[in-house]
Amino acid sequence: MIELQNIKKGFGDKEILKGVSAVMESGKVNLIIGASGSGKTVMMKCIVGLIKVDSGAIRYDNQDFTAMDDREKKEIRQQIGMLFQGSALFDSMTVEQNVMFPLEMFGTGTLKEKKKRVEECLERVQLKDAAKKFPAEISGGMKKRVGIARAIVLNPRYLFCDEPNSGLDPQTSLLIDQLIKELTVEYNITTVINTHDMNTVMESGDHIVYMYQGQKQWEGSNKDIVFSKDQKLNDFIFASEFLREAKEMRQLDMFKDKNWRDQLGKPGNQ
Ligand SMILES: Nc1ncnc2c1ncn2[C@@H]1O[C@H](COP(=O)(O)OP(=O)(O)OP(=O)(O)O)[C@@H](O)[C@H]1O
Question: For residue 109, what are the domain limits?
Answer without folding.
Answer: 91-155
